[in-house]
């Protein structure tokens, strides 16, 4: 962090302060170098933390079919076709990440890998299905210091909305968890 001018680590937290053109800000839940995904509903999710959690738990990917529902689910996701075309087969075959929400399963990492698998006519994809409680550890929050010195959250779910999302998603958990296929 010392090598990044204007950035100061948040004490006791994974995060950092920085000065922006609109004032002092802080990202909580991420550090420079972390891969993050912006989701229209939940704000920013720290993908690096998700992978760390999978590694810590020693999880094994499951295999899920690339069916019309999955294709429809990702149809609106932005992607760069040149990345898809240039992707190696070994990268294509790496697992993707889904997270369970109250309205179903959402792809949070692997859009390009999944698109490449579809382009190559693959019928399935290796994936990890993350429980909704991962939101608590993987969310990223942006706060901005106000003129009187207080801090206001601008990006990310607040505690109440986060709790509601987790409870609603947990209600769906049993219908989505399948035995692991290798």
Task: Describe it.
- A hairpin with a 5-residue loop joins strand 1 (7-9) and strand 2.
- The strands form 2 sheets. Strands 1, 2, 3, 4, 5, 10 and 11 form a 7-stranded antiparallel β-sheet that branches. The protein has a 4-stranded mixed β-sheet with strand order 6-9-7-8, with helices on both faces.
- It has one domain.
- It starts with 6 loop residues before the first strand and ends in a 6-residue tail after the last helix.
- With 182 residues, it is an alpha+beta fold.
- It has helices at 47-57, 68-74, 81-86, 89-92, 111-119, 134-138, 159-176, and strands spanning 7-9, 15-20, 23-28, 36-39, 43-46, 62-65, 96-101, 104-109, 124-130, 139-145, 151-155.
Compute the number of helices. 7
**What are the secondary-structure elements, in order, as H or E?**
EEEEEHEHHHEEHEHEEH
Number of domains: 1
Q: Distance N terminus to C terminus? A: 41 Å
**Count of strand segments:** 11
Question: Beta fraction of the residues?
Answer: 25-35%
| Rg over CA atoms | 18 Å
Percent of residues in helices: 25-40%
How can the largest sheet be summarized? 7 strands, antiparallel
Structural class: alpha+beta
Give the integer mean of the pLDDT values: 85
């Amino acid at each position: 962090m010392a090598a990044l001018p204007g950035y100061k680590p948040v004490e006791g937290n994974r995060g950092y302060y920085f000065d922006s053109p609109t004032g002092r800000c802080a990202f909580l839940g991420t550090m420079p170098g972390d891969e993050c995904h912006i989701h229209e509903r939940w704000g920013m999710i720290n993908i690096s933390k998700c992978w760390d959690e999978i590694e810590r738990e020693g999880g094994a990917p499951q295999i899920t079919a690339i069916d019309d529902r999955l294709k429809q689910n990702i149809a609106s996701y932005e992607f760069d076709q040149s990345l898809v075309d240039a992707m190696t087969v070994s990268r294509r075959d790496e697992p993707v990440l889904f997270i369970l929400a109250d309205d179903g399963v959402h792809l949070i990492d692997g859009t390009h890998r999944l698109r490449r698998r579809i382009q190559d006519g693959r019928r399935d994809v290796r994936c990890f299905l993350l429980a909704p409680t991962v939101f608590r550890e993987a969310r990223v929050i942006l706060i901005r210091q106000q003129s009187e010195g207080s801090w206001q959250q601008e990006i990310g779910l607040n505690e109440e909305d986060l709790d509601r999302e987790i409870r609603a998603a947990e209600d769906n958990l049993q219908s989505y968890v399948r035995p692991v296929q290798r």
